[in-house]
Amino acid sequence: MKNNYRKLKFSILLQTVLVTAVTVLVGGFLLRYVIDGIYNDSFAKMFVDFMMALNMDEQRAIDLYWKLIGDNKMFFMIVGYLLLFALFFYAALSKMMKYVDQIGYGIENIVSESTEPIHLITELKPIEIRLNEIKATLKRQELEAEAGEKKKNDLVLFLAHDLKTPLTSIVAYLSMLDGHPDMPEEERIKYTHIAMEKSLRLGELINEFFDITRYNLQDIELESVEIDLSFMLEQLADELYGVLQEKRLTCEVNVEENLMVYGDPDKLARVFDNILRNAIAYCYESTKIQIEAQMKKGDIEIVFTNQGDKIPGAMLQTIFEKFYRVDGSRSSGTGGAGLGLAIAKEIVELHGGLIRAKSDDMKTQFIVTLPSKAEQEGGAADEVHTHRRYTFRGIPGRRKLIQRGETKGDMGKSAKGDRRL
């Protein structure tokens, strides 16, 4: 970095040396050929004659000349050289100011949002490169902000429309029930069930609005405790029993016993819940979702596998962006805010872990890697934990749990387990 401005420093040094040399040469010429030369006696005579014209005698005028001028020659030489140097250096500064003008041009180029790249003189090449980098960064950030704002605005419009749809249906069905007290019991049950489903959907959409606000206005804070990850995964699968039944799905949980981590139980539950709901939304009907967890190279790896349409490779790089939807749709069946996976990624990374996705023609996998409790204790042996100690504890020997969708009577069991940040 020190050598980036070598040409600029050399140019300024060269101009300073040139100014000094010109000052010495001009000052020496004036001293030898003007002050000590042809004008030396003339100037002294003019001074004496001037003083005599003021009624001063000749000898006293000569003494005054030597006292003020003749004996202080060195002082006047120094002052003269300084004045000459200042004059010539000022002239040289006008040339040096082109560097400032060039930088100003570069800044103006950035401010004016010109599409032309910034070009500066050779001595300012490092500044040129840096200014072009800043310009490219600002442009990229502007485009990203515009794209994010557009996605958010589109999403709000979509959700506003979807909020109105179930609300209209709820009012319609409740009006039918209220206006026909003698309605057959079978139809009453049917319309009540539809109104309940629309109410649940309306609640989900309202929660998504809250998620959008929270995701943009506050940072996620962790309250870490010791967690039995094995039991947590089994518990979450249990709580989604009713949701699984809607698409006649089964969920198989195969995890090692006593997988312990330090983390925020509510936040991690939200991560796994988001991934599971995403898998349920995009998997084929009457298929199986698998949850596997095991120790791997000192970390805990949790894999969620479902059978569904392949996610293209390019989209695998963007599905964890906020407001992103693979299908680009907003149907009431699968239409979400596009925040679930983005929030999951942020929470996992706050826990020191990683989340990634893989997809082929047969299956799609979401893989979460978290540091194990033992690894965290080894890396933070000197930390003092003052948080509340709350532990998810599983039943010894509980290795595998399978949920099967067989009846519709158990659909309500899924509502109580929904966790929100």
CATH superfamily of the largest domain: Histidine kinase-like ATPase, C-terminal domain
Write the element-wise H/E pattern from the N-terminal end onward: HHHHHHEHHEEHEEHHEEHE
User: Helical residue percent?
Assistant: 55-70%
Question: What's the mean pLDDT score?
Answer: 76
CATH topology label of the largest domain: Heat Shock Protein 90
What kind of oligomer do you see?
single chain
Q: Count the domains.
A: 3
Straight-line distance between termini: 46 Å
Number of strands: 8
Structural class: alpha+beta
Strands of the biggest beta sheet: in what spatial order?
A: 6-7-5-4-2-8
In DSSP terms (H or I, runs of 4 or more residues), the helix count works out at 12
Query: Strand percentage, roughly?
Result: 5-15%
What secondary-structure arrangement, pairings included, does this model have?
Elements: H1 6-38, H2 40-53, H3 58-68, H4 73-111, H5 125-179, H6 185-217, E1 225-228, H7 229-239, H8 241-246, E2 250-255, E3 260-263, H9 265-282, E4 288-296, E5 299-306, H10 313-316, H11 340-350, E6 354-359, E7 364-371, H12 373-379, E8 400-404
Helix pairs in contact: 1-4, 2-3, 4-5, 5-6, 7-9, 9-11
Give a written overview of the molecule:
- This protein is an alpha+beta fold and 421 residues long.
- The chain has three domains: 6-116, no CATH class; 147-217, Helix Hairpins (Orthogonal Bundle), CATH 1.10.287.130; 225-417, Heat Shock Protein 90, CATH 3.30.565.10.
- It has helices spanning 6-38, 40-53, 58-68, 73-111, 125-179, 185-217, 229-239, 241-246, 265-282, 313-316, 340-350, 373-379, and strands at 225-228, 250-255, 260-263, 288-296, 299-306, 354-359, 364-371, 400-404.
- A six-stranded mixed β-sheet has the order 6-7-5-4-2-8. It has a two-stranded antiparallel sheet with strand order 1-3.
- The model is unreliable at 327-335 and 380-421 (pLDDT under 50).
